């Protein structure tokens, strides 16, 4: 089986796709990865054919950036689209870059001859490529995909279809015609809109068998709970967007300010906190005896031992925390982060911080650390995720789609 994989977005999107691509390769199937220039190195070491043909974040927002840089007033219809996250996602994921991507991908895809196209949940050029080739296509787990409204996507995507000579699709669910994949059970779905049921599978953990805490962290616990706080891969993308003049519509603080707020909040708690900046350069951090700051951490390993995970609310990090039974506090930055925080509250396994201030973050953390119910429900979620079928069953499911 020949599988064309398309991935856009942040590193979290790549991390969601990698286990599936690895499982397909291990089963003897041939993979062609089409992604962005920024994400290509994440795949290049494992897969022999990786093409950076998809647009990056700033390319997607190019029409908006052009308006902002010109000083012109944005048209009312654009402002209306950006009034909520679903409108923003629908606009971004169906903008003219989709046509450009289809024209770049289609010749490569024709030469490759895929039996199946596996797309990132918010990458819609693959849908049109699959329609042109007449092959099945499936969406993979994606936080952006969870807040993509099929109804709002239909008409602008039909404009893109017309531009590449494809007939319109009148069913909003056409982007899921051959199904979708998720990595949490249906009862923990983060989908914001009515979309078809997913084949839910258990993503493999990267925690080794000998999963002891690093010695420098274990020595400083002294009976205190461990709290892990990370800013995730999206923060560097947010910083790039801000530097380019594209303000985040969700009102999240600048990434460096968000890190300072996390350190200040955790310094007031009776815990040992580990804060990962994700490689983001941050100066002026407050000093605290109980807070360790690092560029990078072994997130899956620390989540296994943590009593609390403070996160920006990216879907991949949330899934990893659920798999380890770790409750969460979400301090949203952009995208679907706030939506994910509300879903965690609904499941009883996390809370959305009232604001991105040290006081609000500390209050949310204290509430979870003091209430055993969060930990009990998080353990239930862990059990539900561990009961899902593994990657071998997922591969068989994809093989059956092609065979059927």
UniProtKB/TrEMBL annotation:
Q: Please provide, alphabetically and separated by semicolons, the GO molecular function terms listed in this UniProt record.
A: hexosyltransferase activity; UDP-glycosyltransferase activity
Q: In Gene Ontology terms, what is a biological process of this protein? A: antibiotic biosynthetic process
Keywords for this protein: Transferase
A Pfam family the protein falls into: EryCIII-like_C
Q: Which SUPFAM superfamilies match?
A: UDP-Glycosyltransferase/glycogen phosphorylase
Domain of life, source organism: Bacteria
The residues covered by the Erythromycin biosynthesis protein CIII-like C-terminal domain are: 282-401
Coiled coil spans: none
Protein name, as recorded = Erythromycin biosynthesis protein CIII-like C-terminal domain-containing protein
